[in-house]
């Protein structure tokens, strides 16, 4: 099953969401923050831990983890951006990632190179669950002899994300569920602090 989008319409194009997807793909494809060279460059970056944490928002360890992050960012980022507005959404994305990085730094056994985009995307998921807990998601199901698009509750897709994080955590201590949970909880709290639940209109009656 491949998530396609949720069923709630948006009033404006998700410019920040699309821009983040493009930046994440370009940074990973270039290898600027990945591999031994990229990790060493992050360690040498000026500005202290906060600077490295910001740069680490755009780092992924492999194409599989990047693909998972991009799919969930696309599905859930559109409506969160539409509800919050572009500036608030960008702040929420950064806040979720920095919270995950702070949780990572609190555990000494974790590498210092940054949790990457998964913590920031986890923040977007947390925000979406707060704003649209009863939403549904369209899933593309390509099976032998059966190709269809079905709807599923958003909570079910969150569980899929949880399983993916558990799978990615094996053998990769900087991708543990604990760290991504920090990003998720930060996003859930930040969307309330940024006034997301109060910014309703007739477009979001499904949420």
Distance between the termini: 23 Å
Strand order within the widest sheet? Answer: 1-2-3
Order of helices and strands: EHHHHHHEEHH
The helicity comes to 55-70%
Q: Tally the helices.
A: 8
Instruction: Estimate nothing, just give the exact number of structural domains.
Output: 1
Main sheet summary: 3 strands, antiparallel
Contiguous low-pLDDT stretches (5 residues minimum) are 202-207
The counted number of beta strands is: 3
**How is the quaternary structure best described?**
single chain
Keywords:
8 helices, three-stranded antiparallel sheet, 10% strand, 60% helix, 207 residues, globular
Task: Describe it.
The protein has one domain. It contains eight helices and three strands. A three-stranded antiparallel β-sheet has the order 1-2-3. Helix 3 crosses helix 5 and helix 5 crosses helix 6. The two termini are 23 Å apart. The C terminus is likely disordered.
């Amino acid at each position: 099953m491949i998530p396609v989008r949720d069923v709630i319409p948006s009033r404006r194009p998700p410019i920040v969401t699309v821009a983040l997807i493009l930046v994440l793909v370009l940074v990973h494809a270039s290898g600027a923050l990945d591999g031994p060279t990229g990790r060493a460059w992050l360690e040498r970056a000026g500005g202290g831990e906060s600077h490295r944490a910001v740069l680490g928002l755009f780092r992924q360890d492999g194409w599989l983890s990047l693909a998972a992050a991009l799919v969930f960012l696309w599905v859930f980022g559109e409506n969160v951006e539409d509800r919050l507005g572009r500036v608030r959404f960008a702040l929420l994305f950064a806040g979720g990632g920095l919270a995950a990085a702070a949780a990572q730094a609190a555990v000494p056994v974790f590498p210092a190179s940054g949790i990457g985009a998964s913590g920031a995307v986890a923040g977007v998921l947390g925000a979406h669950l707060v704003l649209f807990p009863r939403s549904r998601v369209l899933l593309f199901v390509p099976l032998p002899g059966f190709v269809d698009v079905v709807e599923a509750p958003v909570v079910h897709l969150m569980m899929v994300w949880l399983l993916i994080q558990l799978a990615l955590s094996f053998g990769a201590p900087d991708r543990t569920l604990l760290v991504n949970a920090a990003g998720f909880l930060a996003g859930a709290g930040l969307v309330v602090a940024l006034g997301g639940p109060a910014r309703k209109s007739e477009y979001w009656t499904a949420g």
